[in-house]
Each structure stands twice: as structure tokens, then as C-alpha cells.
Design goal:
single chain, about 400 residues, alpha/beta, Rossmann fold, 2 domains, eight-stranded mixed β-sheet, six-stranded parallel β-sheet, 14 helices, about 45% helix, about 15% strand
Length: about 400
Amino acid sequence: MSVAVVTDALYPYHRGGKEIRYFQLLSRLERSFDVRVYTMHWWPERPRTRREHGVEYQAICPRFALYHEARRSILEAIVFAVACLRLFAKRFDVVEADHMPYLQLFTLRLVTKLRRRPLAVTWNEVWGPEYWDRYLGPMSGPVAWWIERTAMRLPDQILALSPGTAERLRPHVGDSVPIRVIPMAVDLDLIRGIQPAAAEEAAELLFVGRLLKHKGVDLLVEAVARLRPDRPIRVLIVGDGPEKLNLEKQVAELGLADVVQIRSDVADQAEVFALMKAAQVFVFPSLREGFGIAPLEALACGTRVVTTSHPDNQARHLVARSDRGYVTDPTPEALATCIEDALADAARGSEPPEAWIEEFDWGAVAEEYADALASTRRTAHFSKLNRVAPERVASRC
């Protein structure tokens, strides 16, 4: 079966949860399927096509910046959506697309409809009308929410990142679109072989992720300012993104330059795991999260994890499942208190990772992902036969 995967962001050129997810899944999917990824021209080499780990990558448009002034670029979304028309000339049995930045889903629905092929969409998170109003304002927010809500009804199947995301999708799609939960996962074999980072590189508190406003890293910095009078502590923030300059300014204004370090040079996943294993507490103060791969990785490393109880933060369900998990209100005061509790518990010693984390191994999740793509094609093929000749469908059954 030939699978066309459409995403505007690509690992390792752009690092985030969804990029790592595609990299891990597709490198395993190629064993059973013919996989082609259609994206922007991220790689420095001139050819528009490259092959890596058995997967073919094709650039359907030049690379455009994903963000403009800390917000998702509308220009990039439009250009990428138009570029997806190139799939009219491509060979595929099923299209699987990342839901962001929404506009390309309308193009892909047109292409797959005319080509009579199924469309599956991975849905990481639901933004909703309130968040859109905060993100774009009361004039543009309702338009963006209409686009998101309409896009939900376009796929033949939605692959939700978490049960919480599936629950938020269901009221808007009803029974018209099947929803299947295909979660994030971790490379457990790699984690088992990693040693903790050296003491000079390690920090008591660690954050890893994209430096975006909704990640709540500013809450962590504020919380650290409340901790500092009581205890000397080192904080390491690993990541890059449009909020980096604001965070550096905040750290300086609060007089935390000798306490908080921001690093954007950690490129290797093994190095991230080493830092997680060396940290006493992993702090993930996100206000909006479709799943939360970083907290899962930290838990798999045996590290205690603190996150927020914000209703849009789906990572809270994952963290609450763990004996090493702490969920608190999304305020600096509550976060500081929770961090203190986690540090006190961490001082009593470490324990091996919990058995339930084995459910989230990439190998197991890749099998679910492959089955979901195959079932999307089977369902679409059955529907096509049913439309053309019901008696033939009955005889085949």
C-alpha cells in the first residue's frame, strides 16, 4: 500500500512532538508500506527529493517560516495548502496528514475526493473558540474557529493523539467521522541504554520543549523566583522558539541569570534523555497540550514530573496516572509549592520506571498506526463498492 504523508514540519529540521512522532512512526512503517512524505524544502541540499531510513521525502514548495511574530504564519499556511495540489500528480492509496495548519486539509480533501482515495488526519489538539479569540482576537478568532471546526469533518478517519482530544472532537463531528486514538510513544530501548548526564551539565529542574507562549515556561521562571530565597537551585530550559528572547529578558529582570540557563544547542535525543535522567524534577507547565511527549519521556527516564491542571493540557491525564506525577494549578505560586513537594520526594531516592509505560513503546504504537491506515483504505474501498454495486458488495462479503 502506498501512503502519502503530508506535513509542513519535518524532524530534525524542526523539533517538536509531532515531528518526532512522524520520524519514529514512518521509519517503522516503511517495512510494510511504500511511504512518501510531502513537505516543505527543509533540507539544505538542492534536490527536491531525498530518501532516508527507507522513507522518500519530496518538497512540494520552498521552505517558509512557520511562525510570524510568535504566531503561526498565515502566509505559510496558504502557500502550503496551494502546494498540496501537486498531489494530483502523485501515486498513493491513502493520504495521512497532520491537521496543522488546517488549510491544507481542504486541498487534500479535494485531491482525494477527485482521485477517489481516503484521507486520514492526525489531530494533535483542539483549539476551540475561546483559545482562538485569545490567539487572534475577537474579529479573526471566530473565522479561525470556523475553519478548524469545518476541517474536522473533512477526513475519512481522524487519528486523535489522546482520549481527551478524541472527546473534544466528537461533539463537532458526531458519527460522521470515525475517531481512533493513536497516542505518542517513547523509544524505551534507547532510554534504557542512556546514562545520566554529568553533574556539571545536570540541573535539579528541567524543561524540554518548544519555547511557545502556551508552553507556560514563563510560569516556571516565576515559580523559580519564589523558590530561590529558600534554596539554591539550578534550572535548565532546553528548547528554541519565538518566546526565547522574552524568556531571556524575564530571567534577567528577575535576577535569575545565575540560576536559570536556556539552551538551544541540544540536538541529540540521547542527550535529552541523559539530562532527564540527571534531573530531580521535570517541570512541564503547559497550558495547552494535545498529548505531552516530553512528560512521558521524563517518566520513562524515572524522573518526577510536574504539570498544570489547565483543562486544555491533555498531558495532565498522563502525569496523574504516575506515582511520580504532580498536577497543580497554572499559577506561579501553586507551581512553586508543587515543585517543592516534588523535590522533597525526589530527595528520598529514585525508583525504576513504572510498568504501564511499556504501553507507549514506539514499536507497539507503530503497529496501531499501520492498522489504522490499512483500515482507512479498507473502509473507503468497501464504501466505494457499495456506492457502485450493492449486490457485488454482498456477494464479496
